[in-house]
Each structure stands twice: as structure tokens, then as C-alpha cells.
Write a structure and sequence with these properties.
The protein is an alpha/beta fold and 254 residues long. The protein is built from eleven helices and nine strands. Helix content is 39%, strand content 19%. The N and C termini lie far apart (55 Å). Bound molecules: S-adenosyl-L-homocysteine.
């Protein structure tokens, strides 16, 4: 068993069924990330017009193919590829029991792909961070970047015992519904959340090298905001957007 590819297969049929029912799939083509032996794929194939099933481990491909054949499922295209390299554009719906070791880059890729919705199994702590609101301990760069693009909600808690082999951590079933996005500067959000317990002003002043600005400019940006003294992790998405726009304005001036 290759643990390093995040191979924990979901055995709980009720969760697989719930996932497949979470979005109306009739007439749609679904992109599935990390199909494994087809645990989720067969449930998706029953609902959707077709499924493109990505799997990196070529050793799993034959059992995936056999599993689909045995159930007479013919609307699945198997692709042996690395999801980090594969082009996600053009898919309206993305699904996946995401391999833990690349959850964050895959999440970023999904929210930028142009898809309309996604249903994903992620580590419980990651899911909680994604849906966290301002002012809480879990509110982070991940919360902000995902929520700037999507309404995120946890559909169900999935205990680790539902997987085979049993991983160290529990999971959650997460649904993302893309929306009109906020304007956020990823680098600036990164910089701010490195200092998330500081005021906006101090966080900016302490990020000057990273952001390529001088201290004077950092102070000027903070002073132009009516929330420059607020603590970073208490900022709403709207305030973060205002700050990113101000930052862009200041950068263009010089
Ligand atoms: N969908 C199955 C398997 C989930 S486990 C289920 O729900 O039970 C995660 C799967 O992702 C594994 O099969 C693993 O081999 C695959 N995987 C890991 N890294 C990958 C990558 N970079 N691209 C595509 N698949 C990957």
C-alpha cells in the first residue's frame, strides 16, 4: 500500500451516496480527482452523463477498469495522470477524495479552474479551516482564499474508520459553490496571515521585504484604511478586498 499517495479508500457506501447526491449531476460531465479503485466513481457514473476519472498510480488503473466493467459502467473515461498537471478547465463539476499530501494546491487549482461546484473529502481540520469565519482561531489564508471564490459548507463528518486503511485523522465532506469572486491579492493575503495576530498596520510594516515595498508606503496604506488598527484575523472578506484594492492602487502609483 502506497501511503505516500494518500491512498485511503472510502468504504462507507452511505457517504459515497451522499456525496454523489450533493449536486444534481444529470446531464453533466464530472471530473474526479484520485479515482482509486472507483469507490466514488461508480456512484458518480450512475448520476452523471459521464465521468473523467484521474488516477496517478498506474497500478490501480486495472482494478479501476475491472470494477467499472463488472458493474457494466460505460460512461467513465479513465486518465492516468497527475492531477497537479492536468488541465481542469472546462469541467462544471469536480469531485474527489483528495490525496492529503496535496490538498492545498488542489484546492487552489479547483477554485481557479472555472468550475461551478465541487464536492470534496478533506481532512477534518482542513475543512474546518476552510469554512471558518473572521475572529476565530481557524480563520486563515485558506479560509480567505477559498471563501473569496466560493460558498463553502461542510455536509458531513466522516470518521477515519470509514476509510481503508484507517488514516490518522478524520475527514469531512465539503461542498464548494462558486460565486462572483472577491478581488484578492494572494501574495498580500499570504503576507498578512503570516502576522495574523497583529494589526493590519504592523502586519504590513513587517512584510515590507516580502511585498517589495518600503515602511513608509506600508504605513501610508494602513493609514488610508478605517480598519488599519484592526487585527488581521478579524478582517472580513470585504475588508480584505478593500485592502487589496488599496494596495494595488498604491503599487500602480509608484
Ligand atoms: N476515490 C477513491 C480513492 C481516494 S484515495 C476513494 O474515494 O476511495 C486518493 C487517490 O488519489 C488514490 O487512489 C491515489 O493514488 C490518488 N492520487 C494521489 N496523488 C494523485 C495525483 N497527484 N493525481 C491523481 N491522483 C492521485
Amino acid at each position: 500500500m502506497k501511503r505516500d499517495l494518500g491512498q485511503n479508500f472510502l468504504a462507507a457506501e452511505e457517504i459515497l451516496e451522499e456525496a454523489a447526491q450533493a449536486i444534481p449531476l444529470k446531464g453533466k460531465t464530472v471530473l474526479e480527482i484520485g479515482a482509486g479503485h472507483g469507490e466514488l466513481t461508480v456512484f458518480l457514473a450512475k448520476e452523471a452523463k459521464s465521468v473523467v476519472a484521474l488516477e496517478l498510480d498506474h497500478k490501480l488503473i486495472s482494478s479501476l477498469r475491472e470494477n467499472l466493467l463488472a458493474q457494466e459502467i460505460k460512461n467513465v473515461k479513465i486518465v492516468c495522470a497527475d492531477a497537479l498537471e492536468f488541465d481542469f478547465s472546462g469541467y462544471e463539476v469536480i469531485y474527489g477524495n483528495l490525496p492529503y499530501y496535496i490538498t492545498t494546491p488542489l484546492l487552489f487549482k479547483i477554485i481557479k479552474s472555472g468550475c461551478k461546484s465541487a464536492v470534496l473529502l478533506v481532512q477534518a481540520e482542513v475543512g474546518e479551516r476552510i469554512v471558518a469565519g473572521p475572529g476565530g482561531r481557524e480563520y486563515s489564508r485558506l479560509s480567505v482564499m477559498v471563501q473569496s471564490q466560493a460558498d463553502a459548507g461542510i455536509l458531513d463528518f466522516v470518521p477515519k474508520e470509514c476509510f481503508n486503511p484507517i488514516p490518522k485523522v478524520d475527514s469531512v465532506l465539503l461542498k464548494l459553490a462558486m460565486k462572483k469572486n472577491f478581488f484578492l491579492d494572494e501574495k498580500l493575503v499570504n503576507a498578512l496571515f503570516q502576522h495574523k495576530n497583529q494589526s493590519v498596520k504592523n502586519a504590513l510594516v513587517h512584510s515590507t521585504a516580502f511585498l517589495g515595498i518600503d515602511k513608509q508606503k506600508a504605513r501610508a496604506i494602513a493609514d488610508s484604511l478605517d480598519f488599519g488598527g484592526d487585527i488581521v484575523f478579524c478582517l472580513s472578506l470585504k475588508q480584505l478586498e478593500t485592502l487589496c484594492k488599496k494596495f494595488k492602487g498604491f503599487s500602480e502609483k509608484t
